[in-house]
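Run log, item B.
One chain of 358 residues. Sequence copied directly from the ordering sheet:
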Amino acid sequence: MDGRGRNTDLLHGGRRRRGGPTIGVNVLDADADGRICLRVPAHTTFGELKMHIYEETRLVPDKQRLLFEEMERDDQEYLDTVGVNDNANVFLVEKKKKRTFEEGEGSRLSSAAEVRPEKEPGSVEVPVEDPLEKENRLKALTSCAAVAKVRAEDDKLSEQSGSVEVPVEDPLEKENRLKALTSCAAVAKVRAEDDKLSEQSGSVEVPVEDPLEKENRLKALTSCAAVAKVRAEDDKLSEQSGSVEVPVEDPLEKENRLKALTSRAAVAKVRAEDDKLSEQVAALKGVVNGGTQAGEKEISELTELLMKQLLKLDGIEAVGEGIEQRKLEVVRIHSILKTLDSLKGMNSNPLGNDSRNV
């Protein structure tokens, strides 16, 4: 059964293109998390497999990308030649059309320059908006709203500082500064409570402070001192600047910096998920090395999850350092997949594995 509730275990239409044995192929939709179970002759090309997928999903073959064992396969390649066995997994990815500047902006400018025919009085022409242009327009409106919010905060800070224009604070530095201020406030609250207890106790002997609490209180006081030092340096720079305007960050540079932060965060999220999968593979490796045969289903599921992680990284628009981080994570996933392949071979030959352990 596939995601649409249809039985696809049989060969479509009851026909076979070639004689010979048939195999079951699990087509996994990476975009919709769907599964299509097909049964086709083993000596079938990937191009013919795309036609079977088209009959089920109505996704034309030109927009289909079929991946097997981490590689995109050509239409002329045969399933049995590349190693597709019974109940093997083949990943389906829909091709996304990317418009270049000449196709997008160039065509739009050229169409705008054309002489339009005169409209009849009282008729209103409603232009049909291109989906890609609509998406870009919504992104632009979202970014404008974010910039307007930051600008309002900057104006408020500028009014408080007089005629001196305060530079835009980095989000990470602002978060750390707020954490430090919060810890300072907490320490001040504890100190006030200690003073109150001290007044109430009078000549009563105060109990000895716990060493761990004392260490935490000293750390908090140290962070407060560091914040006070940074604040004093900021005040000194503000006095030196006088009425000199501090240059505002270029909008394009700010946008690129935000994109870089977003891409790094996306790669970090995938890396955290890969850490969990790597721990599972390491545990499975210990079981197989110990002479116990692992389940083929568990190895297959881990391989499928790692392939989806590769697809996630492929969809991240990395900028700056995010490109290198994404590249390193791709190499790491390939290394984990190689470990799974070796475990699969060891699992199929447990006697040879036992001799190696001896």
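Observations after the first pass:
- The chain has a mean pLDDT of 75.
- The longest helix spans residues 251-289.
Flagged for discussion on Thursday.
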